[in-house]
Amino acid sequence: MAFIVGKDQYLVFNGLNLTNSLAAEVKMNVGGQEVDVSTIGNAWQHFRQGQASLSITASGVWDSGTAATSLDTVMFANINNGGTKLTEYVPGGSASNAVLYRANGFLTSYEVGAPVNGKVGWAATIRIADTPTRTTVA
Fold first, then answer.
1. Of 77, 48, 59, nearest to 114 (Cα)?
2. Helix H or strand E segment including 72
3. In sequence order, what are the beta bridge partners of 89?
4. What pLDDT, in 10s, does the model give residues 24-37?
5. How far apart are CA 55 and CA 125, in angstroms?
6. What is the mean pLDDT of the chain?
7. DSSP E strands: which ranges in 37-128?
8. What gap in Å lies between CA 12 and CA 2, rounded to an integer?
9. pTM, entire model
């Protein structure tokens, strides 16, 4: 097993590469529901596995560009726009056969802010809206 360095990872949302010197951190969270199926009279709670879900969070240095492809322009335009966008995350970089997660997602949050006299940063959460695929980069 090879050690993977995160510097080559990439996250693309709606055609914008968020890790192209903009994102300082990307995390993917995969989880499953915990469904309580207990009945009256059970001495212990009983659980079953429910549906799985996936979300991706990213954060980094804010880009104040006004071009149609700038981080702020793309992210702000996609808050609550009612549609899903192609989302791709490759934790190990774009080398051939690297693991690629792909699905349609929507932006659930986009934050911009900074401490006084600090650099302006951004953070975003993308909720995957359908079943993701786990494949490899061609």
1. 59
2. helix 71-77
3. 11, 101
4. 789 999 998 899 99
5. 7
6. 86
7. 47-61, 85-90, 99-113, 121-128
8. 24
9. 0.82
User: How far is residue 64 from each of residues 20, 98, 120, measured CA to CA in Å?
Assistant: 15, 32, 9
Q: Which tens digits make up the pLDDT trace of 83-124?
A: 899 999 998 877 778 899 999 999 999 999 999 999 899 999
C-alpha to C-alpha distance for 107 and 126, rounded to whole angstroms: 5
Cβ proximity of 59 and 24 under 8 Å: yes
Q: How far apart are the first and last CA of the chain?
A: 20
- Choose among 80, 130, 72, 76: nearest CA to 108: 80
Instruction: Tell me how long the chain is.
Output: 138
Q: What dihedral angle (degrees, nearest 10) is formed by the CA atoms of 59, 61, 63, 69?
A: -40
Distance CA 130, CA 105 (A): 8
Cβ contacts of residue 49 below 8 Å, gap of 6+? 32, 33, 34, 35
